[in-house]
Amino acid sequence: MRETQQQTHVAEFQFSDSESGAPYEHRQPSQQFCVFRAGRERFCITVLDVEEVVDWPLVTRVPLSPPFLMGLFNLRGSIVPLVDIAFTEGRRPGMNPKHVVVAALRAEADRDHLRLGIAADEVIGTFGVTDPSLLEQAPLDVPHCYGLLRHDDRLALALDMRRLIKVFPVPVI
Fold it and tell me: Residue 43 has what DSSP assignment?
């Protein structure tokens, strides 16, 4: 009997906003993004495309590769190409990025998905957004982005994996 009284008491309790006293609606973010910095720019990618974030690995350079390809690294038996999307800024010698955001482009049907490492100087964290936080306009000179994400009074360029591999074509092993 006492258990039923407790359940009734809990069911009647409503959360309210402390400032206005209005009932509090718990809204889940419609999308989650991993936000990171590469060079001077902040970028974000949907967490559904991110497999993991790792500390800077041992990178093997590829002879005669394009300047954006930093090399290849081994991720638990898989060879992953590593790109620097901020390569046009030029890095100071000896100042390698600290992290790699490992993203995956999902393939159709029976094919394996393509993994791609993106060099990141700083991983800021994950950020949940609702529709108004994502602006579907990106600067024209950044073809691998599809929009801008507003977070913490800052903007981050939203990466599109399909566009990214067209702008930064990498070897598939």
Answer: E
Strands 50-55 and 69-75: unpaired
The SS3 of residue 34 is strand
pLDDT mean for each 10 residues of the chain (173 residues): 44 43 54 91 92 95 91 94 83 76 79 86 88 69 84 87 88 63
Residue 28 included in any domain: no
Residue 99 resides in a domain:
yes
Number of domains forming the structure of the chain: 1
Buried b (16+ CB within 10 A) or exposed e, 65-103: eeebbbbbbebeeeebbbbbbbbeeeeeeeeebebbbbb
Instruction: Judge if pTM exceeds 0.90.
Output: no
**Cα(111)–Cα(120) distance, integer angstroms:** 28
